[in-house]
Amino acid sequence: MPNRRFAALLPVVAAVALLGGCRSSTPAPPPPPSVTSAPPAGIPAASVRDIDWASPAVVEEIRRHFGGGEVEPRRVAYADLTGDGREEALVVVESGGTAGDLGAAVYHAEAGRVAVLTWIDRAGHIELRLANVGPNSALVVVQQGQYAPGDAECCPSRIREIVLRWDGVTFRVFGDQTLPTQR
Predict the structure, then answer these.
(1) Is the dihedral of CA 11, 12, 17, 23 positive or negative?
(2) Cα–Cα distance, 106 to 89 (Å, whole number)
(3) What's the confidence (pLDDT) of residue 153?
């Protein structure tokens, strides 16, 4: 007499055997090769200055990365941010409200296309500063309010200033200081 566990598995074993017998002896042909291929990443353009930063199609990738936000073309800053002798664009993403800037994207041109080189995922107030600090003289500065108990949203007691500099791969903290605000 078979044990109960084996008896419970018998219908499953029979179904698998039945389905296995229905298979064709010849393998299915492979799918035909795709005629379309994905376009190379980026926007066709010779320079970062050739981009229309007001175009919804252009800023879609930025909005998707930051979960919304607005790009004000007047705030796009151009400089050699990486020290490679070519100009990049620092594209600041504004919240559209009191939250300030959500972050920024750094775009560069290569092989006739303009694409995101890196993201700066730091909120606050973002700006480009040129300094005489060697070959990478362009710095990205992020200012963030530091609130003490009782500070109004408009008026933090101190400002944290984080200075970012390209290190060959990404932007790293080059300086970090906290400054009192002018009251």
Answers:
(1) positive
(2) 6
(3) 82
Look up residue 81 and give its DSSP letter. Answer: S
93 and 103 Cβ atoms separated by less than 8 Å: yes
CA nearest to 101, candidates 121, 116, 74, 119: 121
Alpha-carbon Rg of the chain, whole angstroms?
28
Q: Is the pLDDT of residue 7 over 70?
A: no
pTM of the model: 0.74
- Report the alpha-carbon angle 150-156-160, nearest 5: 135
Beta-strand ranges (E) seen in the chain are 43-44, 70-71, 77-79, 88-94, 101-110, 113-120, 125-130, 138-146, 158-166, 171-180
pLDDT in tens, 101-125: 999 999 999 999 999 999 999 999 9
Q: How far apart are CA 119 and CA 45, in angstroms?
A: 20
Query: 142, 119 in Cβ contact below 8 A?
Result: no
Tens digits of residue pLDDT in 143-162: 999 999 999 888 899 999 99
Tokens describing residue 72: 């004000």
Beta bridge partners of 118: 106
Backbone φ and ψ for 115, nearest 5 degrees, come out as -145, 165
